[in-house]
Design a protein that fits this description.
Layout (H helix, E strand, L loop, with lengths): L6 H19 L3 E7 L24 E7 L3 H9 L6 E3 L1 H9 L6 E10 L8 E5 L14 E4 L5 H12 L9 E4 L5 H6 L5 E4 L7 H6 E6 H5 L2 E9 H6 L1 H19 L4 H12 L25 H13 L16 H9 L2
Parallel strand pairs: 1-2, 6-7, 6-8
Antiparallel strand pairs: 3-10, 4-10, 5-8, 5-9
């Protein structure tokens, strides 16, 4: 008995065969994600926990790329050199309003300042300084990590609450976080920003005390979150769900007290920081991380509104319009 093939039937069979061959042989997409500091940012150590990330090498291949700061990652995202970029509220509004990146979307969270008993950034003066209250900063010098940075804006909010106004009443200068201790010790600044791990330096603790905290200034702050472009999200939604499932699993592994010794070992080996100086990581002495990596949109909105108040941006911005948490939320549902 002969089997007869019609021309349409042969075409249909051929098309289906090619389609299945394409699906079966498709390589996982390289997922380039920016980062600057770990363990505050999970990207470079996300794959280290054994057996936790299940989709890497299948639907995606993670490619963490280090940058000096979130300003550079924004540029890389705009140039198509990253798929996912960490960002602060400082970059968000200008990117949308000034750079025309209206397709920018917040997709996940990294860490927050001042949640409950968790870590908050400190504004520090010398222990023997005559500065005892915020009002005493009149005529003084404040060293921030960048004019217009989050720490700069938060300090200005606190000082304004106490009637101390920039530039009328005090001077602001730039300095990098690793040099803040020296700025105080050499009396080049009267107040500096203190952040971990630098405040864990025993010589810093010896000479400095906290005048006020970021939490006292502005309440809870969403310090760093992840962003992607809307077109990439639309074209690769299933991949993002896979990635965020792995991201959440890895995050929870690092946050689990049962894994703390292994966590310190991983971070110490990666950063070359002695293990005895890392006991605080992923504890309440560290910044808060949401176990589902969900951003605090209301906190981001408050911070963006502060930028408008201090004229760092020209117009208001509705942050909700620039968030797409649906892939993250679907990923969280998978692993409840």
């Amino acid at each position: 008995m002969r089997i007869r093939h019609t021309v349409p039937g042969v075409i249909c069979f051929t098309v289906l065969s090619l389609a299945f061959a394409t699906v079966g042989s498709a390589d996982p997409l390289k997922l380039r994600i920016g980062w600057s500091v770990t363990p505050a940012q999970l990207a470079p150590i996300m794959l280290d926990p054994p057996g936790v990330t299940q989709h890497n090498g299948k639907s995606y291949v993670l490619d963490p790329i280090r940058f000096a700061g979130s300003g550079q990652t924004l540029q890389a995202l705009g140039a198509g050199e990253l798929e996912i970029a960490p960002m602060t509220f400082i970059q968000l509004a200008p990117a949308i309003q000034n750079a025309g990146m209206t397709d920018l979307r917040i997709v996940a969270d990294e860490f927050r300042d001042g949640v409950g008993e968790y870590e908050t950034n400190q504004y520090m003066v010398l222990k023997d300084s005559p500065i005892q209250k915020v009002e005493d900063l009149k005529g003084k010098i404040f060293a921030t990590n960048g004019i217009g940075s989050g720490q700069d804006v938060f300090a200005r909010v606190m000082l304004r609450k106490h009637g101390v106004e920039y530039p009328r009443d005090y001077t602001i200068i730039d300095s990098n976080f690793p040099f803040m201790r020296a700025m105080l010790a050499e009396k080049k600044a009267d107040m500096v920003v203190g952040v971990k791990p630098f405040t864990e330096d025993p010589t810093f603790k010896t000479i400095a005390r906290t005048l006020f905290t970021q939490k006292e200034a502005v309440g809870t702050s969403d310090m760093l979150f992840l962003t992607a472009r809307a077109d990439f999200i639309a074209k690769n939604r299933a991949l993002l769900v896979d990635f965020f499932e792995d991201y959440i699993r890895s995050l929870r592994w690092y946050m689990d007290p049962a894994n703390h010794a292994a966590v310190i070992d991983i971070v110490s080996r990666y950063t070359k920081v002695p293990a005895n100086r890392l006991e605080w990581i992923f504890t309440k002495q560290d910044f808060y991380r949401d176990p589902n990596a969900k951003p605090d949109i209301a906190a981001i909105q408050r911070s963006v509104d502060m930028l408008k108040e201090f004229n760092f941006v020209k117009a208001n911005l509705d942050v909700n319009k620039f968030a797409d948490l649906s892939p993250l939320e679907e990923a969280a549902e998978r692993i409840k």
